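Request: When convenient, would you put together a sequence paired with its structure tokens?
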Amino acid sequence: MNEKKLRSKSKHDRMVNAVIYIVLILISIVWLFPFVGLVLQSFRSYATEYGGMVAYMVPKEFSLDNYMWLFGSESSFPRWYLNTLIIAIFVAILNTIMIVAVAYALSRSRFAGRTFMMQLWLILGMFPGFLTMICLYFLLKQFGLTQQGAIPGLILVTCASSGMGYYVCKGYFDTIPKALDEAARIDGASNARIMMTIIMPLTKPIIIYTALTAFMAPWCDYVFASYVAFGYSDSYNVAVALTRWVWTNDYQGYYTRFCAGGVLVAIPVTILFMCLQKYYVEGVTGGAVKG
């Protein structure tokens, strides 16, 4: 009787798993469809297929013309790509340093006004950044950090309030036993040495997560970047520049080039996530403190 029940339960589990897998496959197809279309359209040649809106997705003739055009003399794509890379790298480094420093101080130290400061930052973080966009633009303009100076201006604005994003990182620091800090202090270690030699190796996953999210913000930024660099194409990032392409009268000609640029924009982020995804599930304090 028990064996019959086990067989029935096993059959039921297989049916449930089959339904779940089918649903997940359908969702994946729907989710991946636009990306597959983007990649395929990037290999469609404007010269051979007239660049117009066609009734098929797979190109009749694959070509690298769009990618070659992006790096040709007629295109400023390499400059825009470099602008975006410079902004993203500087923002990722500076934001990570500031967020980790603030999170460490709030997690391991106790001082007057600490709770009030955390609550105030949490409340301020609920307001969207768009509320200050116009004010920030005119402030940057006073210091010459718009148009020609848009790149340092975007770096400055993105990093200015990065410390307010401490919350997730602080929660991660709180999971590390303070017994490690106390043991190090008994041996004469300073706060800086504790942070660099003990806490940092244990918090590698959250540091990488912070760096990735900081890198993604300017890499995908369009709204504020379009305001700051308005009218000066040499300071555009790729999001602003590619949008300007599809606004031209030659929409059909630039569409496939827009798709090729979108593929190249997605490559660095995809590589980063593929190389660093193992840190998302890495344990932090397993075995660090013996009970």
